[in-house]
Amino acid sequence: MMWIVRLALRRPYTVAVMALLILMMGILSIRAMLVDIFPPIDIPVVLVVWNYPGLSADDIEKRVIFLDERAISSTVNGVSKIESSSIPSIGILKVYFEPGADIGVAIAQMTAVSSTALRAMPPGMTPPVIIQYNATNVPVAQITLSSKTLPEEKIFDYGLNFIRLRLFTIPGLATPAPFGGKNRQVMIDIDPRSLTAKGLSPNDILTALQSSNLILPAGSARMGETEFNVALNSSPDSVKMFEQIPLKVVNGQPVLLGDVAKVSDSYAEQTNIVRVNRSRAAYLTILKKANASTLVVVEAAKEMIPVIKETAPKGLDLKVDFDQSVFVRNSIKNVLREAIIASILVSMMILFFLGSWRSVIIVCTSIPLSIFVSIIGMNLLGDTINIMTLGGLSLAIGMLVDDATVEVENIHRNRHMGKPLTVAILDGASQIATPAIVATLAICIVFFPVVLLTGPAKFLFTPLALAVVIAMMASYLLSRTLVPTLARMLMEHEPLHEDPNDPHMGPLKRIMVRFNNWRDRNFERFQNSYGRLLNILLHYKRTTLIFVGVAVVASFLLLGIVGTDFFPGTDSGMMKMHFRAPSGTRIEQTEKLVDSAEARIQQIIPKNELETINDMIGVPVSYNLAFVNTDNASGMDAEITISLKEGHKPTLGYVKKIRKDLNEHFPGC
Description:
about 675 residues, four-stranded antiparallel sheet, single chain, 19 helices, alpha+beta, nine-stranded antiparallel sheet, elongated
């Protein structure tokens, strides 16, 4: 690899242009790359959601899910496995496919076979919702809808039909129907006495609604030289007009719907309740699509809030809660902070051991350029800036120091042997060429097993490995090109030996020279002491090996103590609790129990640390279950999400206190 060093010394301007190109392309790559929580996880999965209000979980499983499973497993190509769950009124199929399967064709086949299976299912069953699922389509925030003046059905209706339409204009954003609130619908409450007195039955009302509430095409009418479009619309324009629908003629008098029933603009039976800080509300979950940036999506949603408020009903309050972009920003800030700290520590180390500010500049130029090369490589490979790639860069920073530092130190050593600068650079690079490439490849090969991973781990850890490997290879290349070039430019006029008694030397320089002399003497003593210790250990080889073996075996015993997890634990200041009331509890009673539980939580967590408490009781709209996972199976279930303010005490401590307190005060829950 010495030809690269010689070429760099002969072509310093070429190396300078290369460094500038790396810097410019690195900055452009950072601006172009998506910023996300996790890398894209491309797992071929399709969700099928069946809905039949009133059907029991047992019937959903036997009369709906079983038939669809049998049809899909025998007809659809590329199916790996099928998972299903059934709860009252709702059945969900999660169909996994083999890698490389054509999901478009699979969805078409599933749609066709589900329509066929529909014939064998209970009468009135509607076709399922079929959606391609992606693990990176995750909730990144939620917009809370609350009001002290508007009823819940108005809040739900406005969120479903107006706010969602405005949010759909944001690229990369998706949002299902609102959670909580009341589903608005026209209700007809029959008066049994009036109905009997008129000689009618509920079936007569149903028949009248089906025959009168219609929109029929009537074509056009040509009169003279003009053609008119004829509108034949018998669908009522307002709720009050439902009362004018005729049911029957009795004794020459028409009986209208309003004579035997009360028509109102009301809501369906509520199966899902959302509360924010112990008050009824609703919320829209903001989902980020796989090819979108978390930061861009959340920022665009926040910018849209004032626009929505301008046309929103008076009294409707909108607020963004549980913003995951804060977590991403903090991750980026932490990596940048670690990079700055690493650079400062490296600079101090080089200044301490070599006493040369020029060497500091050389090393601190090489490290960020290596990181920029890694970012450029990840951008070309289609990766994003996420927790895993940032973690890889953080890991690489500590190792990037080695190549440049070792080479600069070896150049100093050769110069102190009396060699000219160019000869010292060539000899210094030659002496460490083989150890440096071996060390770099040894670090890179540690990440080779990542290519053997499958499933979510493959998509998560491959970008991390690429970030480290590309940065390490770039660091080695720069240590062969940029470091020798900068060393020749900066060290040419750097004196090797200076006399602290020189009268022409400034006071600061004199202090630095004396410090260097003191450091050299003490470092030599340290080297001699280390050499003696090494001789002792080599003399007692068996004892040394036994001691190391005992330490290794003892470390393996810790595996049963530290535990295992997919991700390391982080104190994000958020807690999510599942609350299940006694079996069969009505949703209204569950709400009372949850309210009491929240009161206990407010006593445990100080007011100055508690941000919000949100809860979602019961089962949301079936369509939502295809996008947001929940453990709620009926009205007896609730999910409580607790958010803490900055500067809070450890979240894990509150988790233990809440779990202990609620178990004591809510027996049977």
